[in-house]
Design goal:
Number of domains of chain A: 2
Strand order of the largest sheet of chain B: 6-7-8-3-9-10
Helix content of chain A: 55-70%
Structural class of chain A: mainly alpha
CATH class of the largest domain in chain B: Alpha Beta
Oligomer: heterodimer
Distance between the termini of chain A: 33 Å
Shape of chain B: elongated
Shape of chain A: elongated
CATH topology of the largest domain in chain B: Rossmann fold
Structural class of chain B: alpha/beta
Number of strands of chain A: 4
Number of helices of chain A: 18
Number of strands of chain B: 14
Largest interface: A-B, 25 and 33 residues
Largest sheet of chain B: 6 strands, mixed
């Protein structure tokens, strides 16, 4: 069994790591993007809003009556006795989402305030257990009251009945609007971009741990001694080990891309396949960064547990700096500046540039190449550090 | 064993004036060593005496400051892969991949020496049979007992049929049955033509299997020869132990007065007399005891052991 195959066997002897870090985490990425991937988010209209509203009319005026009748047309109106206990129960038990109390003198005060140029007094409102529905209903009710106040102000001679009619007429007016489906909703590939940003975590942690465990197996002192005594040049030995790890890198990258493309196929319908390919390809150099980190950690002689800890925590930090967890724009300027020192930031930049473009242009290729080049430099620098650490450790071990 | 020709007069290993320093510490101090073809050569010494350093230098795992190393009559160097291909190493610690099975481990290390897959398959089968791990070929090392893991360690070092094998304390922490099995295996390797360099702290097993022995201390060769030759190098001849009854006054002084007697001790009715080498020690001592009217129980006369040689040459002080 060649060095290459031996290293592959060592890597494959950790199926739990491969399952958890590669398969499970990439599927978690699919959950993270949710409807963005299928394009359903853009097309979805959602269920019609309908709240249960109770209007307690203590004014008994034409205007308050008009408000109650408007509410009956636009919401499910629930009748509640105007008694303190009944009112409390209605919101506490969730029987009502929005309880509006129209006080005595409501009509008179509203018209007077409007014509005097004052804002109408705020409504007395209480919400039930579904606060979101209640708040939306209260907003709609307040809008009707505002319309009535505007009508009273614009028509100084209008009676309360006329003000109510005007408010009802304006409240029912709608701008005609329709959504034409072209089948290219969310054609920006944002779902894939989000998925690939999250994948900086799964790619980083899986390769650091699995490649780290593989390379660390060759760094055990007695195995290193046995290998060093064999008629094999160190370069051949290292190329066999790293070759196997490169296969691992390509497999993890290919799996990640496959899952991403399948999960986001709905949102990629109108996107240029070349741009998608460019985005996916720009993730490959990024996958070399965790390999370089694994090499460095193996040279440091870290245990399997330590590799897991460093792989996870390091991947979280780096993916955070790449904007996987929170959009970088929402983070403080210091964090945004620090993010530029992480390879995940540049990998995400390359992906976003590719998926945000209208077509493959020289300018786009230059932009993506720059980001990918910086990512590759990170890998080279970390690998060089690993070589230096390995040489120093061997020198110390030889002196012991 | 497959062998490339080495001239009969040549040593398989010849180390001359080897010096290895770690700053002020001299690990090897002009060490000379020669191992003949087809022998089991024992390398003895207390901890820190330079045994492993010497082996590491021979294997080119360590650089050295001065001296020459020749293997199979040719100068050894880190890039002499042709010479390395003729050697095998069985390290002190079990050096195998925990992730691979017994067969995969032997195969992977054998592949460093033998590229031909068909030939390798045969060698791996033979090595597994040689160490008696046939029933465990599909086991991973974690499932093996300490003795079986040691045997796997040996199989990984000998599968490619090396002409020269370095065993670095292969029987540490091994039960007596497994130890006997390992020692038998090493003797069989010698019988099949391999040359073996064997280091151990167990004097009795070195005495049992090694043709020639070198005792080194503080990086120097203190003594070298067969076990009998080494025993003759020290002042101790025999140890006579006798169960005695009441000793009349003056008996111990009379014994101490005998020529060749080095020391006399009495403890719990057991008399221990150590003597210089002499053909008449036992008769002299028994005669002196009979002359004093001492009634005797069991009497034993032991020649010096390698352990006695080791302690006399290297001292009794504790080492790291």
């Amino acid at each position: 069994m060649s060095i290459f195959r031996t290293a592959l066997r060592v890597a494959a002897a950790h199926p739990v790591y491969l399952t958890v870090y590669v398969v499970f985490l990439s599927l978690l990425g699919v959950l993270v993007i949710g409807d963005l991937g299928t394009g359903a988010a853009a097309a979805a209209s959602g269920p019609a809003f309908e709240a249960r509203v109770a209007v307690v009319d203590r004014d008994g005026s034409e205007l308050s009556g008009a408000l109650v009748s408007w509410a009956k047309k636009n919401a499910e109106v629930v009748t509640v006795d105007d008694e303190p206990l009944a009112l409390q129960d209605s919101v506490a038990t969730g029987a009502v989402d929005c309880l509006v109390v129209l006080p005595a003198g409501f009509e008179e005060d509203l018209i007077a305030d409007a014509r005097a140029g004052r804002d109408p007094a705020p409504l007395e409102v209480a919400y039930g257990t579904d606060v979101q529905a209640g708040a939306l209903a209260a907003t709609a009710t307040s809008r009707w009251v505002s319309l009535a106040a505007q009508a009273a102000a614009l028509e100084p001679d209008a009676t309360a009945s006329e003000v109510a009619e005007l408010a009802l007429a304006v409240a029912d007016e709608r701008v005609d609007m329709s959504v034409d489906s072209t089948g290219t909703e969310d054609a920006t590939g944002s779902g894939l971009a989000v998925y690939l940003r999250f994948s900086t975590y799964s790619v980083m942690s899986s390769i650091v741990v699995v490649a780290g465990v593989t390379l660390a197996a060759y760094q055990r002192p007695e195995i290193r001694r046995r290998n060093a005594a064999a008629p094999v040049a160190p370069a051949r030995l290292a190329s066999g080990e790293l070759g196997a790890c490169c296969v691992l890198v390509v497999c993890v990258w290919a799996w990640t891309c496959l899952v991403g493309v399948v999960a986001c196929r709905g949102s990629l319908t109108g996107v240029d396949p070349l741009l998608v390919g460019l985005a996916l390809l720009s993730m490959l150099p990024f996958a070399l960064v965790p390999l370089a980190i694994a090499f460095l950690l193996a040279q440091l002689g870290l245990s399997e547990q330590a590799l897991n800890a460093v792989g996870n925590i390091g991947a979280m930090v780096l993916s955070f700096l790449g904007g996987a967890w929170v959009p970088l724009a929402l983070l403080p300027a210091g964090v945004q500046a620090a993010a530029r020192l992480s390879p995940s930031f540049w990998a995400s930049s390359a992906v976003e540039a590719a998926l945000g473009a209208n077509g493959v242009t020289p300018a786009l290729l230059a932009e993506v190449s720059t980001s990918v080049g910086i990512v590759a430099l990170f890998a080279v620098a970390i690998c060089a550090a690993g070589l230096a650490v390995g040489r120093a450790r061997r020198r110390v071990a030889g002196a012991a | 064993m497959s062998h490339t020709q080495t001239a009969p007069s040549q040593d398989v290993v010849r180390v001359t004036g080897l010096v290895k320093r770690y700053r002020e510490l001299v690990a090897l101090d002009h060490l000379d060593l020669s191992v003949r073809k087809g022998e089991i050569f024992g390398l003895l010494g207390p901890n820190g005496s330079g045994k492993t350093t010497a082996i590491n230098c021979i294997l080119q795992l360590l650089s050295y400051d001065r001296g020459t190393i020749e293997l199979f009559g040719e100068p050894m160097a880190p890039g002499r892969y042709d010479l390395k291909a003729r050697m095998g190493v069985v390290p002190q610690q079990v050096a195998v991949f925990d992730e691979l099975t017994v067969r995969e481990n032997v195969d992977s290390f054998c592949a460093l020496y033998v590229r031909d897959r068909r030939r390798r398959r045969q060698l791996v089968d033979e090595a597994i049979d040689f160490v008696g791990l046939g029933d465990y070929a599909r086991f991973r090392p974690g499932k093996l007992s300490g003795g079986l893991a040691r045997r796997l360690n040996i199989a990984c070092g000998i599968a490619h049929r090396p002409e020269l094998i370095f065993f670095d304390e292969p029987t540490v922490a091994v039960d007596p049955q497994s130890r006997a099995n390992i020692l038998d295996g090493i003797c069989r390797l010698r019988d099949e033509g391999a040359t073996v360099v064997y280091t151990s702290h167990y004097m009795e097993e070195v005495e049992q299997i090694c043709g020639r022995i070198m005792i080194c201390d503080r990086g120097r060769a203190v003594a070298q020869g067969t076990a009998d030759e080494l025993k003759r190098m020290i002042s101790l001849g025999e140890k006579i132990t006798a169960e005695v009854g009441e000793l009349p006054e003056g008996t111990l002084e009379r014994l101490r007065g005998l020529s060749h007697v080095l020391s006399v001790e009495l403890s719990d009715g057991t008399l221990l007399v150590t003597c210089e080498p002499s053909p008449h020690n036992l008769t002299d001592v028994l005669g002196a005891l009979a002359g004093s009217g001492v009634s005797l129980g069991r009497v034993m006369c032991e020649p010096p052991t390698l352990n006695d040689v080791f302690l006399e040459l290297c001292g009794r002080e504790l080492r790291d």
